[in-house]
Amino acid sequence: MSQGFDMIVIGAGIAGATVAAGLGATHKVALVEAEEQAGYHTTGRSAAIWVRNYGPADVRVLTGLSREFFLNPPADIGTDRLAVGRAIVYLAPPAQTGALDGLISQGLGIEEISLAQVKAMVPALIEGYAVRAGIETDGFDMDVAALHQFYLRRARAAGGQLMLRNRAGRIARKNSAWEVETSTGAILCAPIVVNAAGAWADEVAQIAGLAPIGLVPCRRTAAIIDPAPYQVEHWPMVQSAAHDWYIRTEARTRLMVTPCDETPMYPHDVQPDELDVATGIDRMQKALNIPVRRVERAWAGLRTFSPDRSLAFGWDNAAPGFFWCAGQGGYGIQTAPAAGALVAAMVKGEDPGPATGIIAAIDPMRFRGRV
Ligand SMILES: Cc1cc2nc3c(=O)[nH]c(=O)nc-3n(C[C@H](O)[C@H](O)[C@H](O)COP(=O)(O)OP(=O)(O)OC[C@H]3O[C@@H](n4cnc5c(N)ncnc54)[C@H](O)[C@@H]3O)c2cc1C
């Protein structure tokens, strides 16, 4: 016996959760997730930072449109600290002054500051590492777990069914609808399938008999260290202008360090590589005088990019009712509120308002035939 829905969303990370929440009021939604926990993969492994001047133009539009949600969330968001302000400081060694100039000229609100000002904020700065610096002041830390849980709660409150431990293994068109069979043997049926499978999105399309669009999951590594003797709660996020390492405060007293690695991978439960951890610490220690006695923990996650690094949201033109919500790269959390609203409007055929201008740029069919 198959269960009938208006829509089956595959993947319950932040992308699938926002779509299910955004469409729950008008559609009977099944939200199908392979793992025991909805945030097990990339959503639970992010750096949790909102940075206005990050990513391609379409991403920046959604990042900007999401800002208001983070600053003034609904009363039932489940935390009183969804956004906690944190500036971003860009350090330019001699070879990276061009990168800093690019950030300042192309970014919104990035200003040059003196190295003395950086030193006042980050006393660990090593003299001689940077020759110039810039600052972006309107960034903030995001409470990703609260955000994700809020959307899952909203989806369920609207009648949506969250099906954990159900990997979609067969996806086929049958009698003008999609039939999805999961790893528990459940058979679901709906006129619309939303592919929000993150690193697996190309794989999910292929299971449905559709061509991939060339998504590339890339590993990024993060390590947590004790920055003693420094008190880092109010430090800005600090990164090189060329984005080859950054640090940000974790849980008020620790630092997260990354070498900004982007190693192409197949989709899987990715683990940190010791060499990447060591590289991140080494690059940071050229800039900051922080002794690292031990790495407290490390993790890695897959940031999945489309061939032009922009988003891939839209209908597949080779099969009716198959909607792509993929390619969120390193920006899937900070864009989530506006992305969810945009996808809901696109699926319903409604006016997406201020995001209308990016729809052509994020059409996944721009890659069709290129892969
Ligand atoms: C180290 C790191 C730092 C980051 N920092 C930031 C940041 O500071 N700010 C920011 O905005 N973003 C950041 N990101 C990126 C952000 O985390 C991602 O863009 C976002 O989480 C992607 O969400 P998703 O729902 O598309 O993917 P996922 O969270 O991976 O969800 C996809 C889900 O689909 C499920 N799935 C796959 N195949 C199937 C199937 N066949 N059947 C059922 N379920 C399936 C998977 O199990 C998975 O749970 C970072 C990422 C990493 C790794």
From TrEMBL:
Listed Pfam families: DAO (PF01266)
Gene3D superfamilies membership: D-Amino Acid Oxidase, subunit A, domain 2 (3.30.9.10), FAD/NAD(P)-binding domain (3.50.50.60)
SUPFAM superfamilies cross-referenced by the UniProt entry: FAD/NAD(P)-binding domain
Keywords associated with the record: Oxidoreductase
Oxidoreductase found in the keyword field: yes
Highest taxon of source: Bacteria
FAD dependent oxidoreductase domain mapped to chain residues: 6-346
Protein name, entry field: Glycerol-3-phosphate dehydrogenase
Source organism: Acidocella aquatica
